[in-house]
Amino acid sequence: MTNIPETGRNPRVQIRLVVIQILVLSLLGTLGGRLWYLQIRQGDEYAKEASGNHVQQVVQPAVRGSILDARGVALADNETRLVVSASRTDLLKMKDDGEAVLTKLAGVLGMKPEEVREKVRLCDAKTPQPCWNGSPYQPIPITDEATPKQALQIRERAEDFPGISAEPQAVRRYPSPGKANTAQVLGYLSPVTDDEITKAQDTDSPYLRSDQVGRSGIERQYDKALRGKAGVTRYEVDNLGRVIGEAESDPAQPGDNLVTSIDSRVQRIAEYELNEAMKAARKEFDRNTGTNYKADSGAVVVMEAKTGRIVAMASNPTYDPNAWVGGISAADYKKLTGKDSNYPLLNRAIQGQAAPGSVFKVVSTSAAVEAGYDFDGSYDCSSAYNVGGQVFKNFESANYGPINLGRALEVSCDTVFYRLAHQEWKKDGGMNPKKPHDYFYKAAHQFGLGEETGIDLPNEVTGRVPDRQWKQSYWEANKDAWCKTGKKDGSYVEKIAYENCIEGNKMRAGDAINYSIGQGDTLVTPIQMATIYAAISNGGTLYTPSIGKAVVSADGKQVDPIKPTSHGRLPISKETRDKMDAALAGVATNGTAAWRFEGWPQDKIPMHAKTGTAEVYGKQTTSWFATYTKDYSIVMTISQGGTGSGASGPAVRNIYDALYGVQEDGAIDKKKALLPQPQKALPKVKTDGTIAAPKISEDPVKDQQATEKDEYAPLDDQDQGATVPNQDAGDRRTRRRRRGPGRNRKRRILA
Amino acid sequence: MTGANSFQVSGYGPERAGWTRLFARDSVARRLDWPILLAALALSMTGTVLVYSATRNRTELNQGDPYYFLVRHLLNTGIGIALMIAIVWIGHRTLRTAVPLLYGASLFLILLVLTPLGSTINGAHSWIKLPGGFSLQPSEFVKLTIILGMAMLLATRVDAGDKQYPDHRTVLQSLGLAVVPMLIVMLMPDLGSVMVMVIIVLGVLLASGASNRWVFGLIGAGTVGALAVWQLGILDDYQINRFAAFANPELDPAGVGYNTNQARIAIGSGGLTGSGLFHGSQTTGQFVPEQQTDFVFTVAGEELGFVGAGLIILLLGVVLWRACRIARDTPDLYGTIVAAGIVAWFAFQAFENIGMTLGIMPVTGLPLPFVSYGGSSMFAVWMAVGLLQSITVQRPMSA
Question: Would you say the pTM of this structure is higher than 0.90?
Answer without folding.
Answer: no
